[in-house]
Structures are given as C-alpha cells and as structure tokens.
Amino acid sequence: MERRHFFKHLAAASASSLLSLHVPRWSAYAQVGESRPHFFIYIFASGGWDPTQVFEIKPGLSSIDVDPGADAVQSGNINYFHNTDRPWVKTFFDDFYSQCCIINGVNTQSVSHEVGTEIMMTGDAGVPRPDWPTIISSETGPDLLLPHMALSGPSYSGTLGSGTSSGTGFISLLLFEGSWTAASATTEATLDAYTQRRFETLMERYTLEGRTGSKFQEMEESFRRWRELKDIKNDLGDEFTDLDGLGGEGVALATAFERGYAITGTLEARASWDSHSNNNGQQNQGFDNTFQGLHEIVTHLSNRPATSGSGTLLDQTTVVVMSEMGRTPKLNGSNGKDHWPITSVLMVGGGVSGNKVIGSTDDFQNSELVDFQTGQVSSSGLEISSANIGSTLLSMAGLNPNDFLPSTVPAFTAFRSGA
C-alpha cells in the first residue's frame, strides 16, 4: 500500500480537544540563522522527463527533436515551450514567473532510474547518504514526530534512520495493510480499544516476569508515539481526506507545516514519464498534470500567511521540482526518447532568485560550463551536479553543507536570492 493511503485514515476523525488546544511547536525548530522555519517541498517526476518539452528552448536544430506543436513563449524573463495540449504550464508561469528559477544543464551522471533518483536526492549513489529533506528535517526539526513527510515521493534515510527522519516507521503503525478505504469511526474506535488492551496486557505480563529492560522501554516509547499520531490525525483535519493527487498532497503538507508537525516533504509527480514511445504525447500529459498540481500548491502557499513574521507561507517555503534524468535529444524508431543524463530542475518560492533561467546545454543537449554565482555560460565555469544544488539547499535551511558533503563540492548559488 502506498504511503498516501495512510492519510485517508487521518481524515476519519471527529473534533478532539487537540484541535482547540493545539499550539504549533515552533520551539522545536532550531534552524541556524533563521528567525522562522524554512520549509521545503520536493516534487519528483520519476521516470525521466524531457526538458526540451518545456524548459529547454532548442527550436530549429537538426541535432535535437523538439515538440512540433510547441511555440517558444515568455512569461516575465522565463522563456519556455508552450503547447495547447499542456495549458497548465503556461498558466503556472504566467501567474508565478516572478517566483520561479529554471536550472538547465544539470548532469545526473546516470541513465539508470534507481541510481539517478538516488543521485538527485542525495548527491551520490551507492553510499548510505540521507537525502536533502531528511538532512534538513533531522537537523532543524529533531523533536517533531514527523519532521519529514515522504507522502509519495522517494526517500533515502541513509544513516539517520527512517523512524528518526522520514517518519515512515511511525506512519506504518496506523496502516491497515491491504485496505484502500478509510475505516469507519466505529471500526477505528474498536481497533484503538483493542490496541490499548493488548498493550496493557503485554506490559503487565512483562512487568510480572521482570522483563523491564531496553525492549520494554522501547515498547513504551513506541506506544506513546502511536498515541501522539492518533492526536495528529485529529488535528490535521479535512486536508488529509484525499491525497491521491499532487495538488491535494501539497496542500496537506502545507497544513502539516503550519501546525508544527513537519518541516520537509516529498511528493510524486505521477505520470508515464519513461517515454520510450510516443514521447510528445506522454510528456505533454505528464507536464500538464504536474503543473496543474504545482499551480494548486503554490496558489495555496501564496494565500496563506507566514507562520511567523510578515509575508506568506510561500515566502518561507522552497518548492523543488526535479526528475532523475532527461531524454535523448533525438527520437527513436517508436517516436519515443530514451534515457539521457542531462536534466533540468525548477525552483519556486522562498529563498529563490526568481524570474530567470540559468544553466545551459549545447546544440547536442550536453551540459555547458557555467559560473556558479551567475548561472551563465563561462569557459572557466563548472558543470552543475545535484550535489552542487543540494549544497545550496542545505545552506538555505541554515545548515553548513561541509558537515554533510565533501569540502570539494562547491555550492551552485545562482538560484538563491541574496546569494
């Protein structure tokens, strides 16, 4: 069962005392140099999107096959491809170009789905390194029960442990395995009562047997966390009723941010991105669905007040939209495109230097060297990697990237405001 179906159960609750007594636990956040929490939403398009469909403007080249139905358009200073088959792309950029930065020419160094995903999320592959949201959440929200809500996107807990950072170990306590529908309030109350009785019986037996060592204490702690999850269920409310879509998941995650339960989260941009055939049709549908959900998320964030200080929730939330790879420059015999290591990343919201496109690829869709401060092509520049981007994301959370990445990894700061 996918993680999102756990949250269907969260919505079945009636009002509780927690709703009226809830106080956001901002004291749990410990971001260095930040006067208020900085939230992060990671949206991952698993399967490998085609940057030339939207982000890379490469018309008229014999070396690159682009969507024949697309036109180069501009929203503010953001240049991109528009096709009426994916209208939400233009709608999104028209409404939020000032908050957006497109990064082109990112080299994932892989054409493997699994390896590419790990590299984009952690900066490396084959090592137990936690991903960017896990590092941020474990360092800046260590006392939160679910600091990182991996609702549907990929998650790499690495050396930090899934229970500590991603929360999946605690989420599974409330899963009804194999169930795709929420339990009724009566059924859930019955199950809760049974769980309570079972716990008390076991603990009484272990006490009588003198078995009160570390395992006994772990059981007590697990049950306490389970009870706290039940309280969270009541508090999160209606936003967690239906999380089958990207937009709904993002709105629910924003609610968890506002109420002090989480600081990061990952979501899946669901689509048939692995377009080895019918590339244009599949990619059009994927981009339209993704940008529709992204529009819902960013609209919600921009309409909610910041959790502290002035501005909106969008001002303190960075949305990172990425994929594990790109697609080949040329179509194959099935009008599809195969795996290609060069991709693009979209940054939106708080801390982002918006209204610009940075990074670059050449006429054969290979990444070019760019200046890491300006993002512009430079013969003395460097190639952009996920680790370079991740270093800046860690800095935006108030962390020292050198504590988590080799000192030889420079930060790509061109997308960060005020950098």
Could you walk me through the main structural features you see in this protein, from its secondary elements to its overall organization?
The protein is α/β, with parallel strands linked by helices and 419 residues long. The protein has one domain: Alkaline Phosphatase, subunit A, CATH 3.40.720. The protein has helices at 6-10, 17-21, 87-96, 113-122, 132-140, 168-171, 185-208, 214-236, 246-258, 279-303, 386-396, and strands spanning 39-45, 71-75, 78-82, 100-107, 148-150, 264-268, 317-323, 326-327, 339-340, 342-349, 356-359, 384-385. Strands 1, 4, 5, 6, 7, 10, 11 and 12 form an eight-stranded mixed beta sheet that branches. The chain has a two-stranded antiparallel sheet with strand order 2-3. Strands 8-9 form a two-stranded antiparallel sheet. A hairpin with a 2-residue loop joins strand 2 and strand 3 (78-82). Helix 3 packs parallel to helix 10. The chain is elongated and about 80 Å long. The two termini are 42 Å apart.
Give a quick set of tags describing it.
419 residues; disordered N terminus; 11 helices; 33% helix; elongated; 12 strands; alpha/beta; eight-stranded mixed β-sheet; Alkaline Phosphatase, subunit A; two-stranded antiparallel sheet
Short description:
With 419 residues, the protein is an alpha/beta fold. 33% of the residues lie in helices and 14% in strands.
